[in-house]
Amino acid sequence: MDILVLQILNSLFYASVLFLLAAGLSLIFGVMGIINMAHGSLYALGAYVTAWVITFAATAVHPAVLFLLLPAGALVVTAAGVVIEPVLLRPLYKRPEEYQLLITFGLLLVLEDVMRFVWGGTPLSASPLMDALGIVHVGEFVYPTYNLLVIAIGVFAALGVWAFVYRTRFGVMLRATSQDRRMASALGMNVGRVYVQAFGLGCFMAGLGGAIVVPSQAAVLGMGVEVLVLAFVVVVIGGLGSLEGALVGALIVSFVRTGVIQFYEELELAVLYLIAAAVLLVRPTGLFGRPQ
Amino acid sequence: MDEQKQVTRRDFLRQLGVTVGAAGLGATGIGATGYLAAPARAAMKPKGNIPSTPIKTGHITFLTGPAELLGGPGLRGHLLAAEEINAQGGILGKRKIETIQADEAAGTDANVKELRRMKLSEKIDLFTGVISSGNTPALGPVAEELKVLTMFNDGCTDFLFDKAVPNPKYVFRVTNIQSADGVTAAVGAAQHWPKARKIASIQPDYSYGRNVHEHFTLALERLTGGIEVVAEAWPKLFTTDFTPHITKLLSAKPDLLVVGLWGGDYVAFYKQALRYGLFDKMKVATTLAFGGVPHAVGKDHPEGVLAGVHANYHFLYPPGDQWPVNKKFVDTYHKRWKEYPSFESDGAYTTLMMYKAAVEKANQLTGGWPDDEAIIAMLEGMGYDSPAGYVYIRPDNHQGYKDAVTGLTKNLPEYDFPVWDPNSIVYIPIRSITAPPNWPKPGQGGNNESTAAADWIKKTWPKAKA
User: Fold this and answer.
1) Model confidence pTM above 0.80
2) Which candidate in A12, B179, B364, B429 could, as Cys together with B453 as Cys, close a disulfide (CB 3.0–4.6 Å)?
3) Which of A8, A54, A223, A254 has the highest number of chain B CBs within 10 A, making it the mutation to test binding with B?
4) Which residues of chain B have pLDDT under 50?
5) Res A254 pLDDT > 70
């Protein structure tokens, strides 16, 4: 029973991180039609920046202040995104999709090397945040309180993104652009600005994912590539371009992964890919995707 | 030979020659005999005409990704050796070492292509490096085909010389054989926690993890008797979220957990396991906790964990006052790279130094620059005083052997990272935990096990009374 509670919490924790990543990926695709291969590396960049800032500040400031520094990674990644969109992506919108895949994949390789160049091969950690919150007891076991905070951030992020997209003027513009870019442009919207904002928001979510995960793990080289694969499984299941799909997909992937690990671990990745394949066969656009 | 003679655990460990703590130094191979190519020996005058063209070495290792934690120190060890040799004018005073690097993270196929390119286009004289056990079995046969002298640093799978290249001519490997990892962890665990019976295991899901799991459980069963494996976790290599695996391990309530995770994976694992209280609930034996750069593991790492170094080398051992070769290496390495060396650093450094020693020896016999045949003849059976102690290249399988060592973690004030508790260190003569020369390879002579080592343990080790 205690184990069940722990595994449910583990699944929710991982689903929160996967949701932030997959929702950003989906948002960028939905609005701009770009599959951002560098999304995982932006997540890793968020993790590295937050770990680096926290390590620097840990000896100087009160732990409560450290929590204010947690979003540092997300902000840096957002800033990077706002530069990347006009400089690297905008010249390629008129070209076929493979150019966009190539340039974002190139960006992935560049970012991986930049992180290695700046921070080296030794993992960085942000453990002071983890230690500041202590543990909660679950029966005879313990669970880190910080991970509950991550779950809460995941829930708030899901609500926040939903409200943003469906309840604000900017959300209407986003959705209009995603449905018909030329019509939105003809109606007088500044589509270029919507693109920058959408890409920035997607990057913010990726960076936030990295920032909140790093205190409980460590920033290691290649972490973005590992998680990108799962993020793609999430969006394939949920439907590329759909925020609801990202949420449901993240929950499915996370709970199934945990369940398989507990009971029959050899099939961990196989089961996830099988689910993705089954969804593609039955609903090629994903559970919540709409036909183009 | 299933009718085992029964011995006590204590007698068994004594038979293996296992020694513990500072008093055990006699067993590290210091003072071992054999012909020594001691680095301290005054250089003999080269014979004949030596060309002044550089020696080209190819070095493939992990330069990116989580495994950079192992590959980076390896490359730095290689470069340090090259710089030291070049500062003396090069090998035989004439030929300086040039290094062509490539990233092992490109994948096995790309590595094979790169080795071909290095030999055919760059005309390398020596191929070195390689970390992954998935890569050496692919590169080894190609190196034989290309006839390129190859000294792998790691990629330590038994499979390389058991199956992939059973009769090596050009291929050598310097650091220890893989099965020694699991057996060393088992001997360390039997020494420190003889009462542990319920065993759990968490291993990366590929050949290395399978090998550690198999040899650890096999050896521990002989050493303590009556063990039971209560949980296994097989995370994919380069996993970052270990919380479901940790919860599964906790649910099985084992006495002892054996961990074969390495590089960034181990760091992420221990940080998560710490917060789930895993280290309070079970003893933990690892094969590679101290496998990366020493400062990769922080002082938040729990004390009293058996911290493996791939059965190879920790920079504090053998202690510098008793083994000056190590002190000199650690000092120069630290001065050059501002960090302490890992076992990969020692392996890559020793590789080049052994190559140099073999060339010098061959030169004395043949004059001029010796051809590969002569260098190979000198490498076969060579003994060398490396920073890690005495290394011996066995002629039958071209594998480097040195005594295995492991110990329990402790935080000492002198270092910003955990090191071994000096009283906990377990030394094991390598001949006690590896199959002897010409033991039947898997699939031959009644050996139906996965490795020669497993077959040898099953057929010759007694079983301790439970």
Assistant:
1) yes
2) B179
3) A223
4) 1-3, 23-36, 38-40
5) yes
